[in-house]
Amino acid sequence: MDVVVALSVAFLVFPFPSAAGALSPSYYDDNCPQHKSIVRSAVEKATSNDKTVPSALLRMHFHDCFIRGCDGSVLLDTKGKNRAEKDGPPNISLHAFYVIDNAKKALEAECPGVVSCADILAIAARDAIVVSGGPYWEVPNGRKDGRVSLASDTRQLPAPVSNISQLKQSFGQKGLSAKDLVALSGGHTLGFAHCSSFQNRIHNFNTTHDVDPTMNPSFASGLRSVCPAHNKVRNAGAPLDSSNLIFDNAYYKLLLQGKSMFSSDQALLATPKTKALVSKFANSRKAFERAFVNSMTKMSSLTGGEEIRRDCRVVN
Ligand code: HEM
Ligand SMILES: *[C@@H]1O[C@H](CO)[C@@H](O)[C@H](O)[C@H]1NC(C)=O
Ligand SMILES: *[C@@H]1O[C@H](CO)[C@@H](O)[C@H](O)[C@H]1NC(C)=O
Ligand SMILES: *[C@@H]1O[C@H](CO)[C@@H](O)[C@H](O)[C@H]1NC(C)=O
């Protein structure tokens, strides 16, 4: 492959090419060396009051990165007629934005105008993993904040009813591989799902089965009792895995037993390659952690913004 072809392929694979070499773990060493401990204490303080904070931060970062790159677009509030990403359809579990606000306030007091909201969120997502008993890694920094956030963009997020080809395509569009897909789906070791997110599997699955036959029957009936066909309880749902406050590999073990929540989780068993990775991660927490860190670093290097916001909820 000659250089021109190689470059254009690289640009096709990475639609946000400003990532190339721009991010660095030592980015704030001179201008805000205390940034890590500031973000870390905001995450720890919030988590001590509300155990759902780590899962919320991890999902927030994923949504941020998948729309316009990791540019803090998910943090912007709706303004006037412009409905923001956070008010788009799959926002049901997005919360804990105040944690980023608190970290930003503390950072602006110490090093004004230096640390981007997109970086704060990337660091907070790492810290969320750490406080949940998962691995630590150095987050490369230097992301810029974007000025655009559109509810209609949330269509780009993969849906819980996606099949394996749709998932691969969605991740592929972000330069992420099938291995990244399997490793990052391990984020579902933390948190909670509302009934609407797995309704398709437990009622009216298809014309021959009311319940997805790939689901463990007693697991499915447990979910059906929490989420009846015409569920009226607004916040009803179930934990994403049996140890949903701990960042471990239980998600993969449960997946192999037919105890995953979403069709998109179950879909990881649909091809030999992705299924082999599921088994590998189910057998080795270390292998999962290594792959997760690698794939998170890839996902969080999709950049796209242009400024350092003063307030994470509004553009400068
Ligand atoms: C593979 C495609 C993915 C799909 C289709 C998907 C879909 C979903 C859905 C539907 C929910 C539940 C929302 C609710 O009912 O409240 C959820 C929760 C969650 N997702 Fe994903 N997700 C995907 C990938 C990821 C990735 C890559 C991460 C992070 C690395 C992630 C982290 C989370 C977390 C932590 C939660 C729990 C949120 C909370 O409890 O507040 N997901 N996901
Ligand atoms: C989610 O979006 C709806 C409208 O689509 C909005 O009313 C609601 O406030 C949003 N929730 C969050 C947590 O942003
Ligand atoms: C995935 O879903 C799409 C859209 O419904 C469909 O065209 C495709 O054939 C499905 N692929 C698989 C592997 O089921
Ligand atoms: C319903 O789903 C099951 C399991 O995926 C499948 O075997 C069956 O063929 C499906 N039925 C129809 C009518 O699509």
UniProtKB/TrEMBL annotation:
Required cofactor names: heme b; Ca(2+)
Keyword annotations from UniProtKB, A to Z: Calcium, Disulfide bond, Heme, Hydrogen peroxide, Iron, Metal-binding, Oxidoreductase, Peroxidase, Secreted, Signal
Listed InterPro entries: Haem_peroxidase, Haem_peroxidase_sf, Peroxidase_pln, Peroxidases_heam-ligand_BS, Secretory_peroxidase
Cofactor note (record): Binds 1 heme b (iron(II)-protoporphyrin IX) group per subunit. Binds 2 calcium ions per subunit.
Main subcellular localisation: secreted
Pfam families in the cross-refs: peroxidase
Database matches in PROSITE patterns: PEROXIDASE_1, PEROXIDASE_4
Catalysed transformations (reactions): 2 a phenolic donor + H2O2 = 2 a phenolic radical donor + 2 H2O
Family classification: Belongs to the peroxidase family. Classical plant (class III) peroxidase subfamily.
Protein name (database record): Peroxidase
Phylogenetic lineage: Eukaryota, Viridiplantae, Streptophyta, Embryophyta, Tracheophyta
